[in-house]
Amino acid sequence: xxxxxxxxxxxxxxxxxxxxxxxxxxxxxxxxxxxxxxxxxxxxxxxxxxxxxxxxxxxxxxxxxxxxxxxxxxxxxxxxxxxxxxxxxxxxxxxxxxxxxxxxxxxxxxxxxxxxxxxxxxxxxxxxxxxxxxxxxxxxxxxxxxxxxxxxxxxxxxxxxxxxxxxxxxxxxxxxxxxxxxxxxxxxxxxxxxxxxxxxxxxxxxxxxxxxxxxxxxxxxxxxxxxxxxxxxxxxxxxxxxxxxxxxxxxxxxxxxxxxxxxxxxxxxxxxxxxxxxxxxxxxxxxxxxxxxxxxxxxxxxxxxxxxxxxxxxxxxxxxxxxxxxxxxxxxxxxxxxxxxxxxxxxxxxxxxxxxxxxxxxxxxxxxxxxxxxxxxxxxxxxxxxxxxxxxxxxxxxxxxxxxxxxxxxxxxxxxxxxxxxxxxxxxxxxxxxxx
Amino acid sequence: xxxxxxxxxxxxxxxxxxxxxxxxxxxxxxxxxxxxxxxxxxxxxxxxxxxxxxxxxxxxxxxxxxxxxxxxxxxxxxxxxxxxxxxxxxxxxxxxxxxxxxxxxxxxxxxxxxxxxxxxxxxxxxxxxxxxxxxxxxxxxxxxxxxxxxxxxxxxxxxxxxxxxxxxxxxxxxxxxxxxxxxxxxxxxxxxxxxxxxxxxxxxxxxxxxxxxxxxxxxxxxxxxxxxxxxxxxxxxxxxxxxxxxxxxxxxxxxxxxxxxxxxxxxxxxxxxxxxxxxxxxxxxxxxxxxxxxxxxxxxxxxxxxxxxxxxxxxxxxxxxxxx
Lengths: 436, 324
Description:
The complex is a heterodimer of chains A (436) and B (324). Chain A contains twelve helices and eleven strands. Chain A is an alpha/beta fold and 436 residues long. Chain B is of the alpha/beta class and 324 residues long. Chain B has helices at residues 6-20, 44-48, 60-72, 91-98, 101-105, 132-136, 149-161, 211-224, 242-252, 267-279, 301-307, 311-323, and strands at 2-5, 24-28, 53-55, 76-80, 112-117, 142-144, 166-171, 179-182, 195-198, 203-207, 229-233, 236-238, 255-262, 288-292. In chain B, α8 (211-224) crosses α12. Chain B starts with a strand and ends with a helix. In chain B, 62% of the residues are buried. Chains A and B meet through α6 and α7 of A and α1, α2, α3, α4 and α5 of B.
């Protein structure tokens, strides 16, 4: 991090509490951005613009294509001032976002050189949503990324080489070549639950991580993401509802990125704001601009704090657009050009960079230096990944079961209290059901 | 030793494990204040508290997912399916999330999925099924199906102590029908080991769960004809005890494969293949399969009776094979 010429403002804990209570920010600056709006259902909407457009199927002669209607020439909104990020944290977060994007460019190049097994998935345009949310977690908190949240993996301590080797199916990848893409995890140090390809199944799992920790006396925030497409699955409902009923520390970000593979949101759900569904679950919901790193951080930070207090889950809807196809094979030709253009102007990194430059928290020379350092690091990571060996075929037979002491299973946060309430012994029961 | 039913034996095993290991907890539908549809966890919530006996919404994927998540933090959850038929609702969570986790990313999933399966109680198509083969065919899952109270208690303990996901199939027909002396001291029955239920020299019946008792009754009738049947109770369906299966064939040279599950794709096919691979030269007759029909489990008693393998089916087929 090249921030040696910028010293962070130190704010005492006492000062912080007072400042927050007064409606000022943790970083000591007054929040200059407009107050948060509330939508017609009472859901806070932190955005500084509310884009109005709709995508519909249109028959045009023998063909059907998607057409967008609405206001597409509105000005690009500013970044909302963060209530919580310090100046240094802004810069560190910016660095992660740039790292996220540059690493994905490297992945694309590896694919083009036929060095990748299978496809490559991108989070282009969603770097703020991946990085700033993961950045808001505490050191013990857990997360479970989806395919577009590769930035979150970097923020939480994985290296570009881990992700590259996953795509290249190398022996040294986190899954030793057993699985690819973001399908890996770490329950020991980085507390990442591996995603699976089926969408929504991580939601009850993250609720369960929170439950397991609570039984050990620890309140965790368990962050995961899902798309406007993925949340259509039944298991999504089951997981969110269970977390709400038991007030578990699920922090769910619905990335409304407007395209579920090739299907627009309009054909996925019949609501404008998915955050409204929080009302139906009986939990807080919030809408934020997923292309504004400060909004993503602040909204996630508040949800994380709520989870740490044991108050239950939060549903955060991030509005943004997936700026590439579903995977590298998909040119996304079905996306109307003017829609792509609208969101391109709202690029999360460009806007954050401009914001930091204008604030003079980042000097142009320092920016260049930082980007060059990132490129150098990624190049070294790529070289390491490329030169590492493929797995030996016979290792395919290993590891189906946990056996021969390969893992020592013990409670991560301490032995749960037995909470034995009676001296009672087991008594015989009588059948109640008619299946006899 | 005191007498216990199959159901009481499971209760004892579960209770004792919760007493000795604070990381064990129960999660499922109506298992708390109500004590479970079949009363397996009756009284548990009063003794262990609502933190460790957790009622859930009617959401099987949430139950399995939450159990898995808790297991990732080092807990040993025991999740109840009110009826094993409902395991289909959690199929993806089990097959894709849980069973593959150790292989894919090195995360052990020490959880037990337990509940009542099986027919003979007029439960109809959705309260009588035997879902074992979906999971025997899922690498990463262990599948256990005890036939006696002693094995039920010893195997639920092993299942809880195992570092892998274990599907623990309780045959509801046996819950309160069978009773035997069950040891009171702590013991565990190893997963992956079959048990000779009855010694015999003339032919072997390889079976499991409720059908062990069907085979036993048939063996009594056949003994009157001087046909001595060996009964091998598999106890664990995955991983199979290949050695015990092979030994049974080598001893009697004739074998009947008996199960309550339907025929096509049932365990008997796999057992026949193992015998073919390991003991083909020891066979003195064709491998015989006795199973339920390839239909859903029908509701009306005469239909269900026709559907299920019966004592007379075993006696008839055993006589035929003996004469071969």
